[in-house]
Every structure is written in C-alpha cells, then in structure tokens.
From TrEMBL:
Superkingdom in the source lineage: Eukaryota
Stored Pfam families: MCM_bind
Native source organism of the sequence: Nymphaea colorata
Name assigned to this protein: Uncharacterized protein
Length: 37
C-alpha cells in the first residue's frame, strides 16, 4: 500500500537527514535520486 511506502520514505528521510547532519533538503534530493533508479 502507499501508506507503507510513505512510512518507509519518512524513515529513510530521517535516516539520511541525520547522516547529512540535519540537512533535510539534501536528504530529499538523495532519496528522490535513489527512488528514480
């Protein structure tokens, strides 16, 4: 379901954001890049 995908996206976004030192914008770009592969 789309709800599961959204939850996964949110947790990945939080994960990338913490790796990138709180840079949520870069985390969003990284996530979009990975999902477009």
């Amino acid at each position: 379901t789309s709800n599961v995908i959204r939850n996964m996206r949110d947790s990945l976004l939080g994960y990338f954001t913490s790796i990138l030192g709180g840079d949520r914008l870069s985390a969003n770009f990284l996530l979009m890049h990975l999902m477009s592969q």
